[in-house]
Description:
Blueprint: H1 2-11, E1 20-23, E2 31-46, E3 51-53, E4 56-57, E5 60-76, E6 81-92, E7 115-124, E8 133-139, E9 177-186, E10 189-197, E11 216-217, E12 225-233, E13 256-273, E14 283-302, E15 307-319, E16 325-328, E17 336-337, E18 354-358, E19 360-370, E20 382-394, E21 401-413, E22 417-433, E23 439-455
Antiparallel strand pairs: 1-2, 2-5, 2-23, 3-4, 3-17, 5-6, 6-7, 7-8, 8-9, 9-10, 10-12, 11-13, 12-13, 13-14, 14-15, 15-19, 16-18, 19-20, 20-21, 21-22, 22-23
Amino acid sequence: MAPQAADQTAKKPVPDKSELxxxxxxSGTHFFKVTLLNQSWFRFNQSxxxxxxxxDLANNTFDIGLRRTRIQAFGQISDRIFxxxxxxxNNFNYQNGFPSFNTNGTPSNRKVAAFFHDAVGEYLVFRxxxxxKIGSGLTVVNGLxxxxxxxxxxxxxxxxxxxxxxxxxxxDEFSRKLSLYARGQVGPIDYRVVITDPFPIQTNxxxxxxxxxxxxxxxxxxxKQYQGFFMYQFLDKESHQTPGYMTGTYLGKKSIVNLxxxxxxxxxxxxxxxxxxxxxxxxxxxxxxxxxxATFLDMPLNRRTGTAINAxxxxxxxxxxxNYLRFNGVMNPATGQATGxxxxxxxxxxxxxxxxxxxxxxxxxxxxxxxxxxxxGPATGTLMPYVQAQIANYxxxxxxxxxxxxxxxxxIKGHNGKLSLDYQNRPYYQAAVDAANRLVPTGRAGQLTLQxxxxx
Length: 456
């Protein structure tokens, strides 16, 4: 009996000590796993003109914050059933909960920040084949682009091109949506198609903008949103385990060359007043139609030394209705805008904000180079410098908008432990407009950020 017991023991999978994973069967094909992520930011920002911090004018700011703090819990419960949860918080800095009273007049609470990002159940239709998976729940599975459903722990640059999360915190919950989807991989084709029940704009926690000649999300009516994303994979196939969450860089572990395309469409998602504002003018509803085409490359250059390259080039057509424009600043370090200094009468223009979302078009590109492993000696990690460019032409802006980033990752232990130093240069806008009532850039400002990421 003893030799038989020894043989049975030998067949058991050896636990991976780098994962928080519990096997539900002896082969490890059924499992449940937990991951933890924390991204701390230390940032110096040149403020947009007129920015205030707790009612004081602030030409620049230094802040410390948590960009993302997340817990994932997921697993293959049976051959066909997959369960996925994500819980956490985002953009937590000194002003969390500011102002002291919210729009309902009740006290704010800096402790109320964490929430469920995802709660998804998924069913594999064809056993042991990724041809078709059907899922539902609160999910990041999206159309438009890979950056609309990113794996934030594996992104190549310090942060994402947030404009690709097209309706973030407007009609979704931090880019997550209540959806029914089908996704799969058939040969070299990876696909996902989604029907979404969007949230009303009134529930996003901010005062909706007044109805005017420029399009905004409609406060009346409710229509389903339809999405799709498709990839043709020329070389290796990308990971397909978790719903959505597309890897930013495999750090030379795979050879990825993709053509990608995606879309989001929603009937009568937007509204505006025709002609001059006023009760006598008609309200016009407009569809939201967004689509993109892109190419993505992530592959080793020298397998012996570990060097690799990451590159992306995408074109985005962004139609939110006539003259739609939205400023946004990631984890904005300023709390307000001095009276009379907000460009175009728009909200949220303070601090590090720029016109991130708008009707028009965007070209986004990034390029990164992974240097040789153990660059500074045994077990010392390596560097990955990168550049990013976001070039946009929006109807409501007088000239091409350019957002440029340059940075470097110090990969202490791959994505599990890394430091990222990033410099961003952006335009800023003041109250001036041109003859066509478009915003005119009046200067440029910079932001320097150090991020420390720990992930297991």
